[in-house]
Amino acid sequence: MSTIILLTVTGLGLGALYFLVASGLSLIYGLMGVLNFAHGSFLTLGAFIGWQAAQALGAGGWGVFLISLAVGAATGAVFAALTERILIRPLYQRHIEQVLVTVGLSLASVALFEGIWGTDPSFITGPAWLKETTDILGARIPNDRFVAILAAALVLGGLLLFLKKSRYGMIIRAGVENRSMVTALGIDVRKAFTLVFTIGGAAAGMGGVLASHYFGYVSPLLGGSLLIFAFIVTVIGGLGSLTGAALASVAVGILQQFANFYWGVGDFVVVLLLAAVLLARPAGLMGKAVTA
């Protein structure tokens, strides 16, 4: 029983990291139709800058940890906003060029990060409590998993409130449904595009800091490894659906943990799940089917 609890909670923690990356991917594709392959770079840069901020302040306390989270989120937000303004905005409705540019940025950023911070992993020091465990019915759960789950829940709740209650949230939701109608009403939807990129980058940057504590290190390849599963989560949940991304993150994280523990084939099982969902429901669990 303790093993099942441990795998379930650690799977939820891993799924929380996937969601923090997938939420931005889902928003960006849902409004803008942009498959952003550079999204992992937002996560990696946020993790590195957050780590350096913690190092400068003296890593170890909760205050420093929270500051590093804020710095990581701000870094991801700024990098994402600049990416949209400089690289993506001139290429709207040119999907092949968008893919090439974001793939190119992803590869170039990894080389840049390796040049600045080196290719070896940099190990993370955080609050002592994060390295400890909590006993739940005999299962010793690493505390950093609870922090990741809490952060993902807060991000999901904040994004849903923003989309449903704020003016820009309503513009974004309307743009997802009918972008041309929003433009015809005289609303500058480009500001919403930049805002969506910024929000997605902030979530990814925060996820980068949390991922560095989850895995115990930060490296130039951290974002790329998480981006693969974030894309899988986004597709399974339904492109453009935040709730779908959240549900898919939970399913993928837990399934991956159980399959890795019992059979050592977690990644393969996740790919099988992706194939099964696409065959049974091509639009994803909560995506809208496209009619001819």
Fold topology:
Layout: H1 2-32, H2 39-57, H3 62-88, H4 95-117, E1 122-123, H5 128-131, E2 133-136, E3 139-142, H6 143-165, H7 167-177, H8 179-184, H9 189-215, E4 217-218, H10 222-237, H11 242-262, H12 266-280
Antiparallel strand pairs: 1-4, 2-3
Helix pairs in contact: 1-6, 1-9, 1-10, 1-11, 2-3, 2-4, 2-9, 2-10, 3-9, 6-7, 6-9, 7-9, 10-11, 10-12, 11-12
The end-to-end distance, rounded to whole angstroms, is: 49 Å
Structural class: mainly alpha
Number of helices: 12
Radius of gyration: 19 Å
Estimate the helix proportion, in percent. Answer: over 70%
Order of SSEs, N→C?
Answer: HHHHEHEEHHHHEHHH
Strand content: under 5%
Largest sheet: 2 strands, antiparallel
* Average pLDDT rating: 88
The total strand number stands at: 4
Low-confidence stretches: none
What oligomeric assembly is this protein in? single chain
Strand order of the largest sheet: 1-4
The coarse silhouette is globular
Features:
single chain, 292 residues, mainly alpha, two-stranded antiparallel ribbon, 12 helices
Structural account:
The chain is built from 12 helices and 4 strands, in the order ααααβαββααααβααα. The protein is globular and about 60 Å long. It has helices spanning 2-32, 39-57, 62-88, 95-117, 128-131, 143-165, 167-177, 179-184, 189-215, 222-237, 242-262, 266-280; strands spanning 122-123, 133-136, 139-142, 217-218. It has a domain at 23-223. The mean pLDDT is 88. Helix 2 runs parallel beside helix 4. With 292 residues, the protein is mainly alpha-helical.
